[in-house]
Every structure is written in structure tokens, then in C-alpha cells.
Amino acid sequence: MVIPIEDSTDPRIADYVRLRDVDLRKSLEGGQGLFLAEGEKVIRRAIAAGHGVRSMLMTAKWLDKFGDLIDDAGGVTVYLVSDEVMEGITGFQVHRGALASMERRELPSVAEVLRGSRHVVVLEDLVDHTNVGAIFRCAAALGVDAIVLSPRCADPLYRRSVKVSMGSVFSVPYARLKDWHDGLAELRAHGFRLLALTPAESAVPIEEALTGGRTALLLGSEGDGLSSRWLAEADQAVRIPMSREVDSLNVAAAAAIACYLLTAAAR
Ligand SMILES: C[S@@+](CC[C@H](N)C(=O)[O-])C[C@H]1O[C@@H](n2cnc3c(N)ncnc32)[C@H](O)[C@@H]1O
To answer: Which residue puts its alpha carbon closest to atom 18 of ligand 1?
Structure first.
């Protein structure tokens, strides 16, 4: 069903409002159990991963091009808007042609994602959705089996993460710890060796610590890095050696290097 919408305040398109307003989006998406996928590839990957489509929003020029996609989405309602209305609703130009409002699914438990995994990444309190998306993309590309998030880590299904991950948030299994303080004990109970990634000079170079077996790479937040609690809980602090002129790597860059070294060492 295709429904033209001429007014950006029309309540039928409330799923799509103010995409740049992070706080509003967090409460809207959490409350309604939805997330937004942008662009054909990402929407297709979300559908293939089993997420239901609530509706789609696009301008007229994309309607024919996305005919197959609309069919794949199961005869979903498509809201058709002008470029001006699109920008009025979302607050920016949607270059990838279409947005889809998708249904969230219940996350698996930490135990479920750890079972059968050998290499995992654990993210403590990352705040930047771009970094979270980039780390999912690295994990998918480099053969990491799963990602575990601290209770306060940014949402992988936030639009920006979904987009930057290019849909890897749908292919890499992930779960969220319920408990920050004692959460790492659950990984250890599953036989994982915990390597805390830190730029600190006192840490050992990561290559020296990769001994095979089940390994979890712990990565810290953009500002403060890993908490003293998680550093103390880890089996070993490891670093990627850097030039002395730089304090630290961006967390997604650190993740890419560490994931490559971890999975390459196991090949
Ligand atoms: C921007 S850094 C945080 C910097 C923070 N001042 C610190 O000392 O950890 C974010 C995360 O990236 C990872 N990281 C950055 N540079 C690293 C390096 N050279 N070796 C290992 N991990 C690194 C760590 O997990 C860190 O918690």
C-alpha cells in the first residue's frame, strides 16, 4: 500500500521523526521496539535476518527501483513524500533513497552467544554509535564470532550504527551483559581468557599474549578507556604498540588491529 504524505507532522510517519535528536530517538525506539534501517542493502539484510518491517518512507523516484524490496518486505505500507517533506521529518537528506522502520527482536542471552564462540569482542560503555557500527563491521569481516556489550554500551541498532556497520549488526551475534560489576565472570565461566586492550606502556604487546583458545578482547570507552574494575578483572592487559607522539588509537581502529591479529593467529 502506497500512501502519499504531504505534512511532515502527520502522525502516521511518527517512527521517522527527528533522526538527529539522539535522546528523542533513544526513547522513541526503545519505547516502540523499533529501529531504522537506511538504504536498500541494509534494509534487505535486516529483512533476511528476520526483522519485520513496520513501514517504509521514500520519495517517488525510488518507488520503482525498490519494487522488489517492497515485495520482499511483504506488502508493507510505503509512505511517499517529497524531498522537502523528507528533510522536514528526518532533519537531513536521505541519500540512500529509503528508510524502513523495523521491529526489534529479543536479544539472545550472553550464554547463548558465547556457546560455540571462540573469539569474542567485549565493549565497555562505548558512547559513539559510529564506533559501535565500525566494530561490528570489523568483527564480521575478520571472523570474530560474537560481541558482548556492557549494560550501558551504545545501541548497535541505532540508525548510525546500523548504517556504518553496513548491516553487520544483523550477522554478528551479540548480547548485553545484565551486570557490569561481575559481568566478566560469566565470560570466564565459559572458558574465555580475557585480554584488556589498553594503550598503557605497562601492558604487554598483544601478539605476545595470543596463546590460542577461547579469547575475549575487552575494549574501553572513547574517553576514559576500560574501567579499573574491568582492567583488574582481565587476565592480561595488552597493547598495540604505537608511536610515542599519540596517546591512543580510536577504539574502532584498535578493534580492527586486535581482531585481525587474534583471528590470524588462530588460522
Ligand atoms: C580512545 S581509547 C581510550 C583512551 C584512554 N585514555 C585509555 O587510556 O584507555 C579507547 C579504547 O581503544 C583501545 N585502544 C586504543 N589505543 C590502544 C592501543 N594502542 N593498544 C590497545 N588498545 C588501545 C582501548 O581498549 C581503549 O580503551
So the answer is: 199
By most ligand atoms within 8 Å of CB, the mutation choice from 124, 208, 238, 251 for ligand 1 is 251
* Nearest-atom index, ligand 1, CA of 250: 1
Residue nearest to atom 9 of ligand 1 (CA): 225
> pLDDT 10s digit of each residue in the chain, 267 long?
899 999 988 999 999 988 888 888 888 888 889 999 988 889 989 999 999 999 999 998 888 888 888 887 777 999 999 988 888 887 767 666 789 999 999 999 999 999 999 999 999 999 999 999 999 999 999 999 999 999 999 999 998 999 999 999 999 999 999 999 999 999 999 999 999 999 999 999 999 999 889 999 999 999 999 999 999 999 999 999 998 889 999 999 999 999 999 999 787
What are the φ/ψ torsions at residue 233 (nearest 5 degrees)? Answer: -75, -25
Query: What ligand 1 atom has the least distance to the C-alpha of 200?
Result: 8
Residue 120, helix vs strand vs coil: strand
What is the distance between the alpha carbons of residues 186 and 59, in angstroms, rounded to a whole number? 48
Cα(246) to centroid of ligand 1, in Å?
A: 11
Over its C-alpha atoms, the chain yields an Rg (Å, rounded) of 20
Please report the domains of the chain, with CATH numbers, ordered by start residue: 2-103 (3.30.1330.30), 110-264 (3.40.1280.10)
Residue 242 near residue 199 (C-beta atoms within 8 A): yes
Q: Please list, residue by residue across 42-81, b when 16 or more beta carbons sit within 10 angstroms of its beta carbon and e when fewer do.
A: bbbbbbeeebebbbbbbbeebbeebeebbeebeebbbbbb
